[in-house]
């Protein structure tokens, strides 16, 4: 194959393109035909791996399950509120699995009246009980800390609700008083201002104290909202009152946000902490920016007869709602709906059962992890670089570079023509291929994209050092 005039030949031949030499960049071969469009934004669902706990058929029905973000461990403990018939005497256990469902550790569970169980930012499992006792465990089921939040909690009838944030615990007593503990290893409890509640709230959540570390506010990855870089220094709790009011509580005061369409039955904060979704009993969804005083920025709508079992964010882009729906035959159809700001909803079907739950949704900074009894999937927004390479009929420079690689393997002179057509954009095309590789879960796809970037970089006149650094960074991240 002839090379463009004045440019050196590539440093490797077709044989050196293995192990991804047989990989095709065509849209159908790499799943872009399965992409789903939501409000002019493409999304895709990837199979990450098969689960090793396939024998746990009723895991999400009979157990309290808590999954750590960023592909962290999954903790399970028997749900004492659910009747569990057994042929033999089974002692309750705390079981902790890897993200793939491999059992990491287990220990006897001799405690009762669990109010909430969640992982904190340090990957410590925090368990809060009705009597105000907190117990923490490591991912290996090691007992770390044991303490009581406040003696006044028992006097007030114990806890009725609690929430675990990244840096502390919010607890609500039967007397409808809020307590906050800003440590996970000892009691440092303060009493929060009176909220005026007349009954337990329908939902509550803790707004993160700061945007998620590692998220780039300059990166254009959000379809609803460009996040603020303001750091939130104070504790903030959102409380959905039974009266319909949505309250914002901090350590100094309680403010009614004056939001219509209540009461709100579910609250969900995005993993970055920038967005809050509020689902009303009438199916109205209100999306709020958490910067400063929360304000509504979008209002999708859900049919009233649909009762979501889980509401989670897919990155900061859209909402995912898991809705089990009863069919005329008495079965339960399990459906995941992905919703955007213009009231568009994409359905993903997960089969039919006689009842129960089959999904666990875990919000991530860059997407949504979908855990089932058999496998884990990852649903996320298609990156611009991935779209440029794999979208159907793409003539963008990254796609042309990948086409040139395929033609080069076939000893076709069309490779030379493709390279000439993108000579001015070759550096950007190589960078886009490197970036696209970091979004791939399959080794062959990532390797082929990195090889395409190396191939294109060989024809640059100069300034390839930056591409080299980004290439090394991408390889490190993929490992």
UniProtKB/TrEMBL annotation:
Listed GO MF terms: actin binding
InterPro entries: Quinoprotein_ADH-like_sf, VPS16, Vps16_N
Family annotation (Pfam families): Vps16_N (PF04841)
Protein name: Vps16, N-terminal region protein
Gene Ontology CC: endosome; HOPS complex; lysosomal membrane
One GO process term, biological-process aspect: vacuole fusion, non-autophagic
Record-linked SUPFAM superfamilies: Quinoprotein alcohol dehydrogenase-like
Ranges of residues in domain Vps16 N-terminal: 32-462
């Amino acid at each position: 194959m002839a090379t463009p005039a004045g440019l050196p030949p590539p440093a490797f031949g077709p044989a050196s393109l293995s192990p991804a030499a047989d990989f095709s960049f065509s849209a159908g071969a790499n799943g872009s035909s399965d992409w789903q469009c939501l409000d002019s934004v493409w999304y895709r669902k990837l199979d990450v791996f098969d689960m090793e706990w396939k024998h746990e058929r009723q895991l999400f029905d009979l157990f309290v399950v808590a999954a750590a973000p960023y592909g962290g461990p999954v903790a399970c403990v028997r749900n004492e509120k659910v009747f569990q018939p057994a042929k033999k005497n089974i002692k309750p256990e705390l079981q902790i699995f890897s993200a793939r469902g491999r059992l990491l550790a287990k220990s006897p569970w001799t405690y009762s009246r669990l109010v909430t169980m969640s992982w904190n930012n340090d990957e410590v499992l925090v368990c809060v009980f009705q009597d105000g006792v907190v117990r923490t465990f490591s991912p290996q089921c090691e007992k770390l800390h044991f303490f009581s939040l406040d003696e006044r909690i028992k006097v007030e009838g114990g806890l009725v609700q609690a929430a675990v944030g990244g840096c502390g615990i919010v607890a609500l007593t039967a007397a409808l008083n809020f307590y906050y503990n800003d440590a996970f290893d000892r009691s440092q409890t303060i009493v929060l201002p009176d909220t005026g509640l007349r009954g337990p709230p329908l939902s509550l959540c803790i707004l993160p104290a700061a945007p998620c570390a590692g998220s780039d506010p300059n990166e254009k990855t959000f379809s609803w909202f460009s996040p603020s870089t303001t750091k939130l220094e104070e504790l903030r709790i959102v409380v959905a009152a039974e009266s319909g009011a949505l309250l914002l509580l901090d350590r100094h005061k309680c403010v009614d946000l004056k939001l219509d369409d209540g009461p709100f039955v579910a609250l969900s904060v995005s993993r970055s902490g920038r967005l809050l979704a509020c689902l009303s009993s009438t199916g109205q969804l209100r999306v709020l920016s958490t910067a400063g005083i929360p304000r509504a920025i979008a209002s999708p709508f859900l049919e009233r007869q649909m009762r979501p079992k889980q509401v989670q964010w897919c990155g900061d882009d859209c909402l995912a709602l898991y809705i089990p729906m009863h069919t005329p035959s008495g079965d339960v159809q399990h459906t995941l709906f992905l919703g955007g700001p213009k009231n568009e909803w994409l359905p993903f079907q997960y089969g039919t059962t006689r009842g129960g739950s089959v999904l666990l949704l875990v919000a991530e900074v860059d997407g949504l992890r979908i855990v089932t009894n058999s496998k884990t999937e990852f649903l996320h927004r298609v990156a611009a670089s991935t779209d440029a390479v794999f979208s159907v009929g793409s003539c963008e420079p990254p796609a042309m570079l990948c086409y040139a690689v395929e033609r080069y393997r076939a000893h076709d002179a069309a490779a030379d023509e493709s390279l000439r057509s993108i000579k001015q954009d070759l550096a950007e095309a190589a960078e886009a291929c490197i970036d696209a590789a970091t979004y791939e879960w399959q080794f062959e796809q990532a390797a082929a994209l990195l090889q395409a970037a190396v191939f294109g970089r060989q024809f640059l006149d100069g300034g390839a050092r930056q591409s080299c650094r980004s290439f090394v960074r991408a390889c490190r991240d993929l490992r």
